[in-house]
């Protein structure tokens, strides 16, 4: 059933279990910021993840409408078969078809681009404010590197988020958790790859790149902004749609 934006249902019992599993999986990752779609299922997922975290239980979740699922218009609340039939009648392929009242893929990508640029600006402002001062939340400040252990580093990409100086990821200006939706994230990742030339894991297939993430799948990207510049961010995909916690 397509829920999109217009059907704002809560998580099912399975969804809550998946959110708890994702929270346990990420429990040793110290986030500096959390952003979530303002749709209920994403809100509940974000809360479930933070509820299992050792360091960030009290971190404020900021809700942003730019992270909502793709809008499917008249297809929302109806089975996938109905959407396929609409696409066939229009002579189009289902993934790229826009039902009446829905969002085009370009419109979804524009939302993703706008939100990503907002995140980059946030990171630059943190750096400019001297985010590495003692006690600053985004830096290690003498705390254990355990707080920055990423659980998928051993079985995903060879690229790991390790600082050049300390041997652990303690020099990140921001370590941001974003909770969103499958079709939206597929478009966002497409923007990373086609527009920003994101570096992908060597073992990633084209089918994996174009697939929709499983519920609570985890994708991890390292973003480097050279000299605080918002132009030409260097993006490395550490893992895509990781689901070993499920």
UniProtKB/TrEMBL annotation:
Keyword terms of this UniProt record: Hydrolase
One BP term from GO: regulation of pentose-phosphate shunt
CDD domains per UniProt: HP_PGM_like
Domain of life according to the entry: Eukaryota
Residues that coordinate or bind substrate: 41, 69-72
Record InterPro entries: His_Pase_superF_clade-1, His_PPase_superfam, Phosphoglycerate_Mutase
Xref: Pfam families: His_Phos_1
GO cellular component annotations of the record: cytosol
One Gene Ontology MF term: fructose-2,6-bisphosphate 2-phosphatase activity
PANTHER family per UniProt: FRUCTOSE-2,6-BISPHOSPHATASE TIGAR
Protein name, as recorded: TIGAR bisphosphatase
């Amino acid at each position: 059933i397509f829920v999109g934006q217009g059907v704002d249902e809560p998580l099912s019992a399975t969804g809550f279990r998946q959110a708890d599993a994702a929270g346990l999986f990420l429990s040793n990752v110290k986030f500096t910021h959390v952003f979530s779609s303002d749709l209920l299922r994403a809100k509940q997922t974000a809360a479930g993840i933070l509820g299992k975290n050792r360091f960030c239980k009290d971190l404020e979740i900021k809700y942003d409408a730019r992270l909502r699922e793709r809008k499917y218009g008249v297809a929302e609340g109806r089975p996938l078969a109905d959407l396929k039939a609409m696409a066939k009648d229009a002579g189009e392929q289902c993934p790229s078809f826009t039902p009446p009242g829905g969002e085009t893929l370009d419109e979804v990508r524009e939302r993703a681009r706008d939100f990503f640029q907002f995140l980059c600006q946030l990171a630059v402002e943190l750096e400019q404010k001297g985010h590495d001062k003692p006690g600053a939340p985004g830096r290690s400040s003498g705390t254990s590197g355990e707080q920055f252990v990423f659980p998928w580093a051993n079985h995903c990409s060879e690229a790991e988020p390790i600082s050049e100086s300390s041997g652990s990821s303690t020099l990140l200006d921001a370590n941001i958790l974003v909770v969103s939706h499958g079709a939206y994230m597929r478009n966002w990742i497409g923007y990373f790859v086609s527009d920003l030339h994101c570096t992908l894991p060597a073992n990633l297939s084209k089918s994996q790149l174009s697939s929709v993430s499983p519920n609570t799948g985890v994708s991890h990207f390292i973003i480097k902004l050279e000299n605080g510049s918002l132009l030409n961010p260097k993006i490395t995909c550490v893992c895509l749609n990781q689901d070993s916690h499920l």
